[in-house]
Write a structure and sequence with these properties.
Two copies of one chain form a homodimer. Chain A has 37 helices and 33 strands. The first copy, chain A, is of the alpha/beta class. In chain A, the strands form seven sheets. In chain A, strands 14-24-23-16-17-18-19-15 form an eight-stranded mixed sheet. In chain A, helix 5 runs antiparallel to helix 6, helix 14 packs across helix 22 and helix 36 crosses helix 37. In chain A, about 55% of the residues are buried.
Amino acid sequence: MAKKKAQQKAAGKYVYLFGKKTDGNGSMKPLLGGKGANLAEMCRIGLPVPPGFTITTEVCTYYYAHKRTYPAALRAQMQAGVAAIEKQTGKKFGDLKNPLLVSVRSGARDSMPGMMDTILNLGLNDQTVEALAKKTGNPRFAWDCYRRFVQMYGDVVLGVQKRPDEDHEPFETVIETLKHERHHEGIEDTKLTVEDLKELVARFKALVKQRAGKAFPSAPWDQLMGAVGAVFGSWMNDRAIVYRRKYNIPSEWGTAVNVQAMVYGNTGDQSGSGVAFTRNPANGTKEFYGEFLINAQGEDVVAGVRTPSPVSELKKQLPKAYQELERIRHTLERRFKDMQDFEFTIEDGIVYMLQTRNGKRTAMAALKISIDMQKERLIDWKTAVERNPADQFEQLLAPVFDPAEVAKAPVIASGLPAGPGAASGRIYLNADRAVAAAERGEQVLLARLETSPEDLRGMIAAEGILTARGGVSSHAALVARQMGKVCVCGAAALEVDYQGRVVRVAGETFKEGDWMSIDGTAGKVYAGQVKTAPSEIVAGLIDDNAAAKKTEKFRDYQQLMKWCDAATRMVVRTNADTPEQTRNAIAFGAVGIGLCRTEHMFFEGDRIDAMRQMILADTLVARKAALAKLLPYQRDDFAGIFRALKGHPATIRFLDPPLHEFLPHSPDQQQALAKKLGVPTDVIESRVRQLHEFNPMLGLRGCRLGIAFPEISAMQARAVFEAAAIVQKEGMKVRPEIMIPLVGFKKELDLQLEVVHQAARDVQAEQKVKLKYLVGTMIEAPRGALTADEIAQSAEFFSFGTNDLTQMALGMSRDDSGSFLPQYAELEIVKKNPFATIDQTGVGQLVEIAVTKGRQSRPNIKLGICGEHGGDPASIRFFETVGLDYVSCSPYRVPVARLAAAQARLANKVGR
Amino acid sequence: MAKKKAQQKAAGKYVYLFGKKTDGNGSMKPLLGGKGANLAEMCRIGLPVPPGFTITTEVCTYYYAHKRTYPAALRAQMQAGVAAIEKQTGKKFGDLKNPLLVSVRSGARDSMPGMMDTILNLGLNDQTVEALAKKTGNPRFAWDCYRRFVQMYGDVVLGVQKRPDEDHEPFETVIETLKHERHHEGIEDTKLTVEDLKELVARFKALVKQRAGKAFPSAPWDQLMGAVGAVFGSWMNDRAIVYRRKYNIPSEWGTAVNVQAMVYGNTGDQSGSGVAFTRNPANGTKEFYGEFLINAQGEDVVAGVRTPSPVSELKKQLPKAYQELERIRHTLERRFKDMQDFEFTIEDGIVYMLQTRNGKRTAMAALKISIDMQKERLIDWKTAVERNPADQFEQLLAPVFDPAEVAKAPVIASGLPAGPGAASGRIYLNADRAVAAAERGEQVLLARLETSPEDLRGMIAAEGILTARGGVSSHAALVARQMGKVCVCGAAALEVDYQGRVVRVAGETFKEGDWMSIDGTAGKVYAGQVKTAPSEIVAGLIDDNAAAKKTEKFRDYQQLMKWCDAATRMVVRTNADTPEQTRNAIAFGAVGIGLCRTEHMFFEGDRIDAMRQMILADTLVARKAALAKLLPYQRDDFAGIFRALKGHPATIRFLDPPLHEFLPHSPDQQQALAKKLGVPTDVIESRVRQLHEFNPMLGLRGCRLGIAFPEISAMQARAVFEAAAIVQKEGMKVRPEIMIPLVGFKKELDLQLEVVHQAARDVQAEQKVKLKYLVGTMIEAPRGALTADEIAQSAEFFSFGTNDLTQMALGMSRDDSGSFLPQYAELEIVKKNPFATIDQTGVGQLVEIAVTKGRQSRPNIKLGICGEHGGDPASIRFFETVGLDYVSCSPYRVPVARLAAAQARLANKVGR
């Protein structure tokens, strides 16, 4: 089947031109990749783009479906593409007079910085190099291009790379050896002579032959096909896979390949390469922001080896080019209506655009840019809402350094503020050791000269990233921005000694494991650990701090949340067990409690003793006596929560965990408890043994407890209603929603309903009040979802307990799956951790079934979700789609959930 | 809603007449109950039935839905019913000249022997008793009726019963006291004088007033309404609930009430009452079978107090009545086409029919009757198949006493062969102690004078039942027959001493806890324990015993199985892990293995050591070395199984349980293992700790093992294919079907598929053979069922692992649910144990979803089930409905499953 389909496609269009004739446009990202589509779009709006063509992502898919081969029609279409470039540039591929050189770059649908490989100067060989030298009158330039090309191609396409037993890259070793032989030690590569370069090319080729077992290809078409294969091949390299996993990019998307005429930033002092942003990607300020290197190719800027200069300096050095770039910057924003991250090359004073894409930005920048662009009428308020990435939004609530503490801390270096926020940690100089330290539970800062894709795992593990070299578009800055990591880069005062595993700065030596602190908003590095304080938003909302409320960040946040409220359908509640948690969540905009776990209340102070007495009781009378002690505690807790809610509803879950969780398990603790309660130790031992279960997750818990011991539910119901009566008499509205956990059978709920309603009748009669309340259930066993039509006959609401639903539907214990889930992610069995983001295909079906069946029986049934997924943006999108009434999450996730719920609604609406 | 509906029904028909005018017929059992429908039917075919009417089961439902009240229209319809009886009998209810007396009896849809209560002689009071005396000229008879009525009504309707502090029934105490006062000690009740009886009535009424707090009702209509209420009330008594639970009768069905003119078996020597069967219900012989008591009411026969005479003696005593009964017996079988169990009363030589119903019978009787009736052309072969109750069919395979052993055993008593089979056990004389002993794990015989409904729990717990009194229609015999218990009743030589807790017989004294053995086929009682031998069917099939094959039982069984094969669509496989189990299952008619659990093979002999080495290995090399030791064992096992299968397919499940199950857990065992394997103890300890899981059911098991350690699957696959190659070269067909357990994601299966196919390619190349095999999966995680469309793209078959599917869908661990499932059954949260009979509403939905989706992706996918439910008739009916291709069960359940599968198919076919 797949083969047949592919054969039909073989007659399709695989190559899209851009330049004077442009086949594609900016909307064709899935087919042309982000880079290819935007190159086409820039051509369409008249920006200066060197001509080229894009090989579609479908070819990548074909490549992997057909044992790494290409569709038959590809070659001819590529030839036509090369001919079009030749026509526009007047050069010819492999020509001995005016040879065309091309770059070959990857370009996936979403940009994947640093992940894919690039080949420059393709088309050079021993003949064309001479032609280039002659044509440009610059043999040094030509041979330097050739040297770079052989090195890059040898590395990326032919796999000549550092072996574990080597200290350096083999090509670098060849260069160092030559410099040593010719007494050039320490000179820059740019100072190598034509003869040096010729010798290097020869030695590089010999190295390639030795290592790769075959000669370096000299025919340009062989070079081109090899490079295209290498780009496709790199789609499945480890770094790309790690990246895709972190950002949940399906491997099926594939990458496109862009073949484009070369332009040169390294032809002399009127040339250069740069990377820029239409606004500041770290904090969102509307300014031309970026950096460049004179007399350099683009790769040099991103690699972070030489520290580039800010674009503002271009104004002085190449004012015409600067003016052109300013024009381009505005054109780009007007066209793409978003902050752009673009690459340019200046060849002999002429600006060429090599790429543009929506710029990655920090959550803080995203907030400011979205608010500003709406003010500028570039986007409407709904788009502004959509522009804030919900999964990074929590960064805005992350602590900053405590102003008092930070004033006392010694600043040891300054650098570029590449990832805002505050982070303290023990420094590690290598990714592996950083990961190991983080796994030991340490707080880690990754400190390096510069970072490269190999450091990705270490960056993920670290609280913050600190580099001595590289600018705001260096790998470290890009990745930190995207991940929301605190980052200071280019802190040149740091001497990072990989060998000695120390960082020397300001006359001090910091060993691995020593503490440093970095302020990624201010670009400052401190010695030691610095205390943090709440972010302005938290300070404004929770602490009612007037100064914080005046900050732009706070005002922008409030504006965004106002829009979110206007856009949203699904409201956000919170999971809270105390009045304080409740107050915080309400301050963050929660409109009630979606899950109040009553068992947490039994652990405080003396309560646990009464709870244990209850569990150890072997008669109903003794159990009721112990429960009577617990009742006032619960009543007071509920009253406090009701007051904090200020009239909002509270879903209160009755006792859920297995009873053994309340009893001590070690002999010492058991003896102590025995003494305290005045019972023989063996009574406790035997009860613990009796309560032992092989699979407690599937044992005597949830409503099974309330059914076995209805007096527990009766006590809890009485505590709820007594508290409600008290608070209602104080003049406040109270809306308890009692939730019976783990219901799989309607009859279970019915039995508990009787107990609850009886308590309600009793309390209302005793207290002479009328109470409004609901009784519902958690849908967390698959059977509950499958028989939701029956259960909804009795349940006034459902709350999806997606944690347990996931555990049961997948047959995976959250506590135990650590032994295989990481491997499952690596093998792409699961695309995302199903306990973090709901498994829509499996668990999601159960939710959909329950929603449909529940509404069949009770059209106005209230539907919510209170599992961990309630604070996860991807899951919230799903819950909006199935039409839940609310999600519930922990207090500090409430803003994220509000944003995600609003975005989900906007995405769901027809016409948007 | 329910109320409104019921009010509409209030205008309906609640009372159905029978007699000269008959409203109902035999097909109306749901509405009229079994007794009412058959009374109507007997009237229609002209049998002599005293007139009466039936109050429908809808009234019972109404009664419980409306706080034990009746529909408004009921009273008027009952009055019309009484009028009709009056008209036909010429008597009048409450009349002072010719008073009508009636019986009031329950009658549920399915007969529930001994469960419901009956009132006789209703309508008597101080006035009508005189009229009856005058009319019959028999004051003794009239007063005896009155005495019985007050006693029965006082007991059943007014609740005057033995209190825990009393030794005897209070009415019996009154009788004994009177006898003592009047020096009548020891005389039979029939010898009491009219004066005695009058005095008894007075004292009974005083007792009622004292105990019940109100006077005995004298108005006949008050009596009647009270009796009807008592029948409905008894529907919810404990005995009835226990019975319904055992036989899975929904409580919603309710019971009908039959009100019928009295006829008298106690008017003298030309009168009597009896219970009879149209064939022998214990062994199926075609003979008039039953028993009667001269000058007795029906209750006396069933109560087992007097031992009745066989019906054959009626031929001599009342030849005309005997002739009439013989005629009726044939009429009944011709009309009902099934063996009937009927009650009759002879009043002054005239036969009256009080009831008929399909007779309960042993599995052995069911088999013979079904085969015989087909030969007699009373029924067709399909009906014959349906007539064998599948859930009792296993009885036919139950062991009998070993002929050699039983010849040496001392016969200590003989009785009626009331429940065929052989049972040895320790005797207990009371239900509570029998239950307690069984719970301790003892094999128990319940030995009693006679049994009553109070003994039900004890009867369920016992291997066999032995009574000293009572005939083949006594309570003990009826219940034993229905439950398939071995039973000898009426073994009059036994002296059962409840007080001393001993049984004295043949000069010996047997204390509680002493062994006895009973042969319920021969009616013999032996001292001590007697060894058993396989039943004729097992001997014939498994042992190829020629003598066994000549028995009628064996031949009937073979005939039935032939018909089953003709009727069935869904075939039966077996769960077998050894060649012997496989051979047995094939002999029982299995057509392959549905589940071969490979882990069982790792426990035998030295293998466990290699297995443990494999688990303890911390390198791939070490693991592979240990696996290499296991390979030959597995290969030999598989080869043995393939040979035993004789070409049938074998579904082989790869390693499934968590690895810790293979390691020792106590310090002693760990030390021993350390010594044996030459590794430090702490390596073992630490591995055990590392493998510990909170919920192993949801942990690292199933295919997760094979994915973590592909070399395990590779070894298992190689073992399967090498064994297949060996046996195939021996000239036998081999059909391995490799089953990957616990698949929830298609990718899991895909990864294991690669390993399996690689092993297949390797072995085929090495051995130069071509092997046919399938690879499929177990659907046992809910996600597997929900994404069956995806999984079926890779799976060539599904086997439903309904054990785990039940555990996960219900969130109930089989091992842990013992702490609440019994209560769940009592509260009717679950109707049946979901681990014994599939929970069709919940788990069944997952099966249906998977079947539908699986077939969508792969129309010819093979579908089976290998959980415990594969041997359960009720579950098999469901699997037939959803269209599975096979069920798989343990070898000794294969015959049951074949019968159940055939019956399910017959029930499913349109037009049947």
